[in-house]
Write a structure and sequence with these properties.
Layout (H helix, E strand, L loop, with lengths): L5 H21 L19 H15 L2 H15 L29 H18 L5 H15 L20 H7 L7 H9 L5 H8 L6 E3 H4 L13 H10 L8 E3 L11 H7 L6 H8 L4 H9 L1 H15 L40
Antiparallel strand pairs: 1-2
Helix pairs in contact: 2-4, 2-5, 3-4, 3-5, 4-5, 8-14, 11-13, 13-14
Bound molecules: protoporphyrin IX containing FE (HEM) and 2-acetamido-2-deoxy-beta-D-glucopyranose (NAG) (4 copies).
Length: 348
């Protein structure tokens, strides 16, 4: 009998034993209430709807991908991935009046999330949360720009309260931060050195305003910056108050690849928070490894994105599924807009 062959047992036990192990290496353990099959019966076409819609949208506006990726990061870092960043009135959200300056999340990206929500409600009814749509849209930003196609755990619910100005300032580090400050900020969310270097790779797409890096070119060149790169930035930002923008990744600005790390190795990182990853001994080996091996970067980025995407999620019967990603459902509790005076803070 085949099943008595010792080789067969060896093979079987190897498969049974190793496959959970290799899963564990490519994805962190799931947060309670999340699963990879959450909408399998209630909205089976969810992921293909989002992919097709965004594929079309990115063709006419490539910057939308960067905008959507950054919104998911801001959502997760400030009071968890609960769609709070999307609420009109959130300190890092779309509302003009309570937003601290220099957050510069793109309005088209908030609009795109609402359009996806409407499209999904037509197909499946009101079953998919805005927080899940945001997480899936971020994955498409990565994948459709050339990055890894990782699986996203689903089942988040939408929170009822805004991200306050205080929380936003506490959890979102400034681009002027060094590695010590960044590590301390990420530790508040249980993220480590590897997560910091991998997630910063999100800066392989998108743009930054002069105000986010003027500390490195005025009054003079930050010595950790390449001279030619500096000369070009001074053309884009002739004065420290210029409102121009420039690409975060000077090599391949719209492609999700490992060139961001190649930039850092060549001292062409844009923000202090980028370039210090190469200068600091704790993060430098990881930067070099990613610059040399895109496959390794993709694997670690996917892992850290899934981990970030499970921060303080609301699940089960908590929160709600919003009918409008920009507003709490009518008659469902109260929230306070904090820190309307947040206008005095430094750059983000
Ligand atoms: C580690 C700390 C981080 C800091 C200090 C930081 C800071 C910034 C700043 C200042 C900007 C430009 C804002 C502007 O001048 O308009 C920016 C843009 C961006 N960030 Fe980060 N970021 C961090 C982490 C992340 C993470 C974890 C992701 C996603 C995985 C991410 C994705 C992006 C993207 C895609 C953009 C471009 C947005 C656009 O073009 O609209 N960032 N970031
Ligand atoms: C990092 O920045 C903080 C705050 O600006 C500063 O106190 C600290 O000395 C800096 N650390 C290093 C290693 O440069
Ligand atoms: C940047 O803005 C200034 C005006 O402040 C303008 O003269 C200059 O041409 C702009 N440079 C680029 C590269 O957009
Ligand atoms: C969604 O909510 C926002 C914020 O309250 C509001 O401005 C917008 O008109 C709403 N959209 C729809 C389609 O009702
Ligand atoms: C520190 C910093 O660069 N802050 C800037 C934030 O944005 C405003 C304009 O919205 C600038 O005036 C600040 O200088």
């Amino acid at each position: 009998m085949a099943s008595t062959n010792p080789l067969f047992f060896l093979l079987l036990s190897t498969l049974l034993f190793l496959s959970p192990l290799s899963d564990a290496q490519t994805a962190p353990p799931l947060a309670k209430g999340l699963s990879y099959t959450f909408y399998k019966s209630t909205c089976p076409n969810l992921e293909s709807i989002i992919r097709l819609e965004l594929q079309r949208a990115f063709k006419s506006n490539v910057g939308l991908a960067a905008g959507l990726l950054r919104i998911h990061f801001h959502d997760c870092f400030v009071q968890g991935c609960d769609g709070s960043v999307l609420l009109d009135g959130s300190a890092s959200g779309p509302s003009e009046k309570s937003a601290p300056p220099n957050l510069t999340l793109r309005k088209e990206a908030f609009d795109a999330i609402n359009q996806l929500r409407d499209r999904i409600e037509k197909a499946c009814g009101r079953v998919v949360s805005c927080a899940d749509i945001t997480a899936l849209a971020a994955r498409e930003s990565v994948f459709l720009s050339g990055g890894p196609n990782y699986k996203v755990p689903l089942g988040r619910r939408d929170g009822l309260t805004f991200a306050t100005s205080d929380a936003t300032l506490k959890f979102l580090p400034s681009p002027r931060s060094n590695v010590s400050v960044l590590l301390a900020a990420l530790a508040l969310n249980n993220l480590d050195v590897n997560d910091l270097v991998a997630l910063s790779g999100g800066h392989t797409i998108g743009i930054g305003h002069c105000s986010s890096f003027n500390n490195r070119i005025f009054p003079s060149r930050d010595p950790s910056m390449d001279q030619t790169f500096f000369n070009n930035l001074r053309l884009t930002c002739p004065t420290s108050s210029t409102t121009n923008t420039t690409n975060l990744d000077v090599r391949t600005p719209d492609v999700f690849d490992n060139k961001y790390y190649v930039d850092l190795v060549n001292r062409q990182g844009l923000f202090t928070s980028d370039q210090d990853l190469y200068s600091d001994g704790r993060t430098n080996p990881v930067v070099s490894a990613f610059a040399n091996d895109q496959g390794l970067f993709f694997e670690k980025f996917a892992y850290s994105m899934v981990k970030m995407g499970m921060l303080n999620v609301v699940t089960g019967t908590g929160g709600q599924v919003r009918a409008n990603c920009s507003a709490r459902n009518p008659g469902t509790g109260w929230s306070v807009v904090d820190g309307e005076e947040g206008g005095s803070v430094a750059a983000y």
